[in-house]
Design a protein that fits this description.
The complex is a heterodimer of chains A (235) and B (263). Helices cover 50% and strands 9% of the residues of chain A. Chain A is mainly α and 235 residues long. Chain A starts with 10 loop residues before the first helix and ends in an 11-residue tail after the last helix. By secondary structure, chain B is α+β, with helices and mostly antiparallel strands. Classes of the chains: A mainly alpha (235), B alpha+beta (263).
Chain lengths: 235, 263
């Protein structure tokens, strides 16, 4: 009996005993412990099952164990962003009319123009912020949401890092919108040259906002719900 | 109330016991690597002064033109609000609203709300509507994009150099300074203000009341003296109570030691 500490009440004891001489720490999530953490002020409190909408005892914001409908909402926002990404790249963001003629610039043609002019750093900045980041963001979030939905146990730690990166870099895509704003306001030389914004800028701005909303709706805790709470390094 | 010293990782939901941290350090989740919380000093003077400086710089940045272009004797200059009005006039109301929110409205709300909370906390009392204002800061924070806008100004300048003479104006430098000040403010996690507020009150955990704002909770539940802060004692995973002793400083879960203690 002493050799088998396996009792229905203490599943973690078995986990800990497996760790030989250096017992691995056993992690307990708030969900398993019947607790709930406030996302606004970090206060941990007991989950109350009797009320429909539990409020944080300290700051009064509504509590959720996981973001409500995280996967469905992320998919919806991602899909709209992906659809809008097509006009964002096909339609011109800037329309230049000057005495030498008029010309439409899409995001990619702007990058190509600076590259051909030998302005490599500028071209690289615009390429990274306006093309690479939104595409990586759409792809990464789609992968993370799909992996979460299918209950993947694959490298949760790396996936969490990926999510953290996506959340950090998303805002930098707004760069192009700001450049359009300033360019339109500055280049107003009457008959000499006038630059006006094109429909591509509108679609692009919406893509940035939608992907930012999508990454906010996604809940990385859902990835960890499929991982056993052993202390093993998840590499 | 033993939940008072617990913290749940916001990325993997793992529970940890909170410990006092040495200054300028942060606690990381040992399971997923997320930052759980940072050490907070009760001295808010530095943060307060930087926020005030940022607010003044913000006003300068908005009031003056950013750059002036000059070509063939025609000059053209713009302020940020002028640029937004120009965009609005081009039937780009949605984009104009986005830019207005990201560069004017949300940063302004963040700075004012920070000052509204920090100045009274420094003086030793908790302002009215504390939790609502704090939540407003957390809501606007991801959408304020002063540093992205600064990069946008620089990219525009480099673009314009080939077609016109570019004359930098006051707001350009103000935006540069504002970017640096915002970088300092953004390193401060507003959630830490909850801990500071509880320390300021001196009565322990705060409780939210629907109409009366905040009131202090039971004093006995909260130990005000900081706990020992040796680096190995910072964090150890939470394990549900099962009638065994608490984990050792190395973070050994109580459950691992449980079988040995049985008679």
């Amino acid at each position: 009996m002493t050799d088998t500490p396996e009792t229905p009440g203490a599943p973690e004891a078995v986990e800990g005993a497996n760790g030989a001489d250096t017992p691995e720490p056993v992690f307990t999530t708030a969900k398993e412990a019947g607790l709930i953490a406030c996302h606004a002020c970090n206060r941990v409190q007991k989950r109350v099952f009797t009320v429909e909408r539990q409020l944080c005892v300290r700051c009064g914001s509504p509590l959720h164990r996981r973001n409500p409908d995280a996967v469905a909402r992320t998919w919806a926002l991602l899909l709209s962003a992906a659809i809008l990404y097509i006009p964002a790249n096909l339609y011109p963001v800037l329309h230049t009319s000057s005495i030498v003629g008029s010309e439409d610039d899409t995001i990619m043609s702007g990058v190509a123009m600076f590259w051909n002019d030998g302005d490599y750093p500028l071209s690289a900045i615009i390429f990274i912020a306006s093309i690479l980041v939104p595409m990586l963001k759409l792809g990464t979030l789609a992968f993370l949401t799909w992996a979460t939905q299918s209950g993947s146990k694959w490298r949760p730690r790396q996936r969490t890092t990926l999510y953290r990166i996506v959340e950090k870099i998303g805002r930098w895509s707004m760069l192009d919108v700001f450049v359009v704003t300033l360019t339109v306001a500055l280049v107003r030389f009457g008959s000499l040259a006038v630059i006006t914004p094109g429909p591509g800028a509108l679609a692009f701005g919406c893509v940035v906002v939608l992907t930012m909303l999508a990454s906010m709706q996604f809940d990385p805790r859902l990835m960890w719900d499929h991982i056993e709470p052993s202390g093993k390094k998840h590499d | 109330m033993e939940e008072d010293d617990l913290i749940a990782c916001h990325e993997c939901d793992t529970l940890f016991h909170k410990r006092a941290l040495p200054s300028r350090s942060s606690a990381k989740c040992t399971r997923c690597g997320a930052t759980l919380y940072q050490s907070v000093s009760s001295n808010l003077d530095k943060l307060c002064s930087i926020t005030l400086a940022a607010l003044i710089t913000f006003l300068i940045a908005q009031a003056f033109p950013i750059v002036e272009l000059e070509t063939n004797g025609i000059t053209s200059q713009t302020t940020l609000i002028g640029a937004i009005v120009a965009l609005w006039g081009e039937n780009m109301e949605v984009i104009a609203t986005m830019v207005f929110c990201a560069t004017i409205l949300f940063p302004l709300i963040e700075l004012m709300a920070m000052l509204y909370l920090l100045v009274p906390l420094r003086a030793g009392f908790i302002p009215a509507g504390f939790s609502q204002v704090l939540r407003a800061i957390q809501f606007v924070r991801p959408w304020g994009m002063i540093e992205v806008f600064m990069l946008g100004i620089l990219v525009t300048l480099v673009k314009m150099v080939s077609i016109a003479r570019v004359i930098p104006e006051a707001a350009l430098f103000a935006f540069g300074a504002l970017t640096l000040l915002f970088a300092v403010i953004l390193t401060f996690d507003p959630r830490a203000l909850w801990d500071i507020a509880e320390r300021v009150g001196g009565h322990g955990p705060l409780r939210y009341t629907p109409f009366g704002g905040l009131r202090s909770g039971p004093v006995s539940a909260y130990s005000t003296e900081p706990q020992s802060a040796t680096p190995s004692d910072l964090l150890h995973p939470y394990a549900p109570p099962r009638g065994t002793q608490r984990g050792s400083p190395e973070g050994t879960p109580p459950d691992a030691a449980a079988p040995g203690n049985k008679p």
